[in-house]
Write a structure and sequence with these properties.
The protein is built from 15 helices and 16 strands. The protein is α/β, with parallel strands linked by helices. The chain has 2 domains: 80 residues, no CATH class; 215 residues, Vaccinia Virus protein VP39 (Rossmann fold, 3-Layer(aba) Sandwich). Strands 2, 3, 4, 5, 10, 14, 15 and 16 form an 8-stranded mixed sheet that branches. Strands 1, 6, 7, 8 and 9 form a 5-stranded antiparallel sheet that branches. Strand 11 and strand 12 form a beta hairpin. The termini are far apart.
Length: 350
């Protein structure tokens, strides 16, 4: 648990007796004491391992997909933007794979969106010196360029704060957070929804018992869609999520690879939720973008050649390395592991 001083600092920032769940998540993740600003989260020694960290084959498949679409649909100066590059592993794979098409980086204005200063330094150490001369690091996505863009992310949209509502006999309640002064801890309460605007939004979900939504996630994606609609381009995002009605809230906290309460280890653990892909698809359609792909990670990786890539690597490695390669691919595409839970959405105006 955090010391009392650190817990109270988050509480003081709110200066309220109770506050919405999404505000609590935002502070726990993005305040000056927040998880994403003060801690290196990615890797086997840390809280979670992403697909690019599991296998270079993941990055290679994404790379070939991006290279092909640039050559076929753009083939000119463009913005290459990664959201939340982490350790820079995925971008490093793209760097390496792009050697088969030198014009790709020759025409790319590269922007890496990263708020964590420590991760920025790690990225700079990991990435090719030549490519670094073309890279701009930013904390926020800049929509000023009028060039066509390729925007991509892996496990980025799951980190946006969510609000949680539940329906009890046609009465909607929302989850709020309070701080117990005597016990020095946070806990959740349910508060009746009285906002007319929110109640109007909830009408479409009247047949559901629960509704979990990230308005900030939807707004961020909508900005991307508006930008692509105006300036051409594509966005490919891979994340864990769903496109069916959920029976349970998906909010979770991870500390040292184990699930915990969101009220434990505040500022020291990851808090995330499953992405509602139906809402993102609807936003893309409202902005007249095409849905090029919406399939599971398993389907995407197989469709674009991971099994062929695995076969090639197996033919060049020892038995010990072969076991590792098979394990890596199984972890990425097995429906009981990452294959089904993770989805791939590609929207475009190309």
């Amino acid at each position: 648990m955090l010391s009392k001083r650190k817990i109270n600092k988050i509480k003081i920032l709110n200066n309220k007796k109770k506050f919405r769940l999404d505000k609590f998540i935002e502070l726990a993740l993005f305040s000056s004491n927040g998880y994403y600003l003060r801690k290196k989260p990615i890797g086997k020694k840390y809280d979670f391992v992403t697909s690019p960290e599991i296998s270079q084959m993941f990055g290679e498949i994404i790379s070939v997909y991006l290279l092909y679409h640039w050559k076929d649909k753009i083939n000119s100066k463009f913005n290459l933007i990664e959201l939340g590059p982490g350790n820079g592993t995925l971008f490093k794979d793209i760097e390496r794979t792009a050697q088969i098409l030198p014009d790709f980086f020759a025409n790319a204005d590269v922007n890496l969106i990263e708020i964590n200063e420590e991760l920025r330094e790690i990225q700079k150490k990991n990435l090719n010196y030549f490519t670094q001369s073309k890279i701009r690091w930013s904390k926020v996505l800049n929509f000023k360029s009028k060039l066509p863009s390729i925007i991509y992310s892996n496990e980025f949209f799951d980190c946006f704060p969510v609000r949680q509502f539940f329906n009890d006999n046609s009465h909607w309640f929302e989850r709020y957070v309070k701080f117990n002064e005597k016990e020095n801890k946070y806990y959740s309460i349910n508060k009746p929804v009285i906002s007319k605007k929110v109640l109007v939004d909830l009408r479409k979900y009247k047949k559901q018992k629960i509704y979990e939504v990230s308005y900030s996630r939807n707004k961020y994606f909508e900005q991307i869609c508006k930008y692509l609609r105006k300036n051409r381009g594509m966005c490919i995002l891979i994340d864990y999520g769903y496109n069916v009605k959920i029976k349970n809230f998906t909010l979770q906290a991870i500390y040292n690879h184990k699930k915990t309460s969101i009220f434990e280890n505040i500022g020291q653990q990851d808090i995330s939720s499953h992405v509602n892909f139906n809402e993102l698809i609807e936003i893309a359609k409202q902005n007249k973008l095409k849905i090029d792909e919406f399939i599971s990670q398993r389907e995407f990786l197989i469709k674009y050649g991971i099994l062929e890539r695995k076969k090639k690597l197996l033919s060049k490695n020892s038995n010990l390395k072969k076991n590792l390669i098979n394990e890596e691919v199984d972890r990425l595409i097995n429906i009981d592991r990452m294959g089904k839970l993770f989805k791939c959405l590609v929207v475009s105006n190309l």
